[in-house]
User: What shape does this take?
Amino acid sequence: MRHWLLVFFYFLIIQKTWGQSSQKKVEKKWFCKITIQDKTIDFSLVQTRGKGNSLRYSLVNGKEIIPLEKTEKIGDSLYCPISVFESKLIFPSSPGASFSGYFVNAKNQRMPFHAGLEIPSKNSNNINPKFIGNWKLYFHDSGIISDSGILITRQSGQKLYGTILTETGDYRYLNGSTNDNSAYLQTLDGGHSYRFDFETINDSLKGSFIYGPKGTDLFFGIKTKGIELKDGFENLQSSIGKQLVFKAKDFQGNEINQDSPIVKNKALVIQVLGTWCPNCMDETRFLASAYSKKPENVEFIGLAFERKPDLNQSFARIEILKSRLKVPYPIYWGGKANKDSAQKALPILKKVFAFPTTIFIKEDGLIYKVHSGFSGPATGKFYDDWTKEFFKIIEELKSNPKK
Assistant: This one.
């Protein structure tokens, strides 16, 4: 009997080991270059083969891995939506060692890319330290300053990484490299297709910024030790202590407002967002994760402002967002995707400065705090600081019940 038990357990071990090895993923990785204007943006495309011999693809954007879900085969091509955006990659359904395809942005503009299995030659030089640090950037067109921010760069091995932090958000994950006299940073994440080329002169830099098939700006920067940006809480201090007033619609077209049972007499976190907005997607991921850790008396809702002109089209986009990011809280439609429309839906706010905007409401319906913008995970310390600040605020909502 003992002998047969040993044989039985040996068989189970062999069967388990065989099953695990048969499910082992086989991976291919292509190095891709998209042509945008007279430059290229590099990214990687990864193929994995899992259970049922099904193929899965992911886009690697520097340190960010974006699964390409809801892939559809049309003819001999795969159409792969990127994250929750209306952009996609199109490439052969049976990609070989090298192939060509297209990146199609939300405006349906096609930009070609070429992919190959060969590994690009590594730059033998170390990252040039003169490009590392914080830079106050000023973007300009025809000599007119149009925007500003803080370029934050860091070195990792042979690569240059960073982001641009602004008063309303960040440029998410940037990656690139340097040589003796110049550097570049780039990103392709579905919402952005950006490339920055620049050079330094002493403690300043200058360069060009291309976005999409036609957009170009110039910029210059000055090295700085501090982060000289307005705090996101400063813009709407005048709204603090006022009674919440808003209006939106659910998927059936019913009006949702401050008197609706789902929000009345509840402490609230209201997210003002759009499914087209990359910073909003970072905040949505954060809020979806934070939802399970919130105090019991605090609820989250989203008010989405969409590029689609009507309710049904807008909720189609909202449902894609909720499904792919596993959003546990309700999101309603606030109107068109612009700041004026958002301000009309939230008339108690003097102005909506950014997508996203986060509004914190006490149980008595009074506005406790309003924060413009969101610093996502690409910003490192700033994202960590916001995480701590957010949980501190919702604990304060908990300690301020209706009187």
Notes: Confidence is low (pLDDT under 50) at residues 1-24. Residues 26-116 form one domain.
